Amino acid sequence: MTDNDTLYIIPARGGSKGIPHKNIKELCGRPLIHYSIDVARALADDIHVIVSTDDDEIREVAEQTGLKVDYRRPESLGGDTVGSREVILDVMDYADRKGTRYDKVVLLQPTSPMRNVDDVRGCLALYKPGVDMVVSVTEAACNPYYDCFETAEDGTLHVSKGDGKYTRRQDVPKAWQYNGAVYVINPDSIRRMGLGEFPVRIPYEMPRSRSVDLDTPLDWHITEMLMNGIKS
């Protein structure tokens, strides 16, 4: 069953620095962006799936999946200092002009190729009126009550939270970090404020083994090993 109450946005600008051309670089035999497109198209009709890119080559590679890429990201939103909010709002304005109906927005970044359809469904199931965003998370590698430190004015270290008396990681409150895989966003909320200002954010936990976020060549190498391990 397709979800036609949701607008799926796949952001893919052309100027990647950490991994050149990463959005169309082949990962385990497929262009990276194809993994996110496949997930979105498994959940919604093509009219509700929009690739946001300023790059003709990315558009052509995206269309190899059969998805028509009519929208083009404005040049002003192509720099590496542009935030996700501006990109999302421009796609929403485009969808509104076309008369596409939706009551929530899902952001699927291509850099999370191990996110699957069930992860998106799990996030959608947690979304309800009054929620600003449901976001995928994984348990943080560093815990501010235990092994995450800050420097004081005199240059010495102190634990980020608490009194530093915890001696076992199992005893500290859990800490979470965004894994970049799924964001289910309230359209009204993002029109009023930035993602970091949302007061009501609901976490959807994903295992660390699938919470890869490709940013460096090492990330890419590790992800290939993980994905090849799943296939074997």
Notable traits:
single chain, 232 residues, alpha/beta, 6-stranded mixed sheet, two-stranded antiparallel ribbon, 28% helix, globular
Briefly summarize what is shown.
28% of the residues lie in helices and 20% in strands. The protein is built from six helices and ten strands, in the order βββαβααβαββββαβα. A hairpin with a 2-residue loop joins strand 2 and strand 3.
Describe this structure in words.
This protein is of the alpha/beta class and 232 residues long. The chain is built from six helices and ten strands; from the N terminus they run βββαβααβαββββαβα. It has helices spanning 32-43, 56-63, 84-98, 117-126, 187-192, 217-231; strands at residues 6-11, 26-27, 30-31, 49-52, 104-107, 133-139, 149-151, 157-159, 176-185, 201-205. The protein has a six-stranded mixed beta sheet with strand order 4-1-5-9-6-10, with helices on both faces. It has a two-stranded antiparallel sheet with strand order 2-3. A two-stranded antiparallel ribbon has the order 7-8. A hairpin with a 5-residue loop joins strand 7 and strand 8 (157-159). The longest helix has 15 residues, at 84-98. It is globular. It starts with 5 loop residues before the first strand and ends with a helix. 34% of the residues are buried. The model has no long low-confidence stretch (mean pLDDT 93).
